[in-house]
Model the fold of this input.
Amino acid sequence: MLLVHLNNRVSSMTIATLRFITASVIAFAFSSPAAIANVSYTEAGQARPAHTVTFDKGAFTSTNDTTFRWLGMAGFLINSHGTTLMVDPLLEGFDMDVMIDYPIQASKVPTLDGVLVTHSDNDHFSLPTLQKLTAHTGFHSTQYVHSLMQQQGFTSAGYAPGDSFMINDIEVTMIPVDHAWQNAYPGTADREFKNEDSTGFWIKTQDATIWATGDSRLMPEHLTYSPAPDIILFDFSDSEWHFTLEGAIKLANAYPNALLLLHHWGSVNAPEFPPFNGDPAVLFSSITQPERIKVLMPGEAFSVKNKQVVSH
Done:
């Protein structure tokens, strides 16, 4: 992963001190003990999940609800009444120091009805992972990422912003994003990137409407979707090529009833790299109805039925 879109750095000692103070204050004033208990801190002050919950083929069987499992990084497994999707799975082979245990090995995934890939950055488009999954499923992404998948011999389809497609009874719509960060750094890529090379996904299941935001700078239309999502797979990275922390809070408060399933935090040992060093504790004092913030452990099941939480 190219570390070219770094924000201004401060020392690890400063980060550790600030985060310890912030987490302690917010834990006391704004959060539930269970939420904070799910977060631990490295010596450098980076938040990380306290543990991983492994799962097996049973997570892919038919259900009577819609169940989410965070895979770590930006990945999720979604099982909606037996239709199984993964979003941006990265389960092996990353080129930075990963500090979580993956909840399942890619080679142990028994079946999938589809894999959704938001863009070509390798923490989302994981070739080592997809090479293990390709025998079980097809892949869906932008037209650009589809072209990369075709070079690998994958079964894939590419779409434009606004396009919709079905995976069994689940409708998926491509949501615009702003993440052509490569163009800001000459020499990073051998082509001009377009915003449509990346995407978010609007996923309609029987039980809830889910917004997988992907990586994006905040766009005006991100604040005005109607009807509102029931669940947001929520990136709160304080990076200029993501929503930023301020933008993420603004987005969350634009949809005050949406559940927020956190991701893009605590997975990579990078305490000074904003795309990976988010701390869930900083959200609780700024987001309306903070009880809707869900700090899942990798592999932990979280289920909804008819827009109601049925397990956590």
User: Anything to note?
Assistant: Residues 91 and 129 are 6 Å apart (CA to CA). The mean pLDDT is 91. The helical segments are 12-29, 33-37, 127-133, 143-151, 245-254.
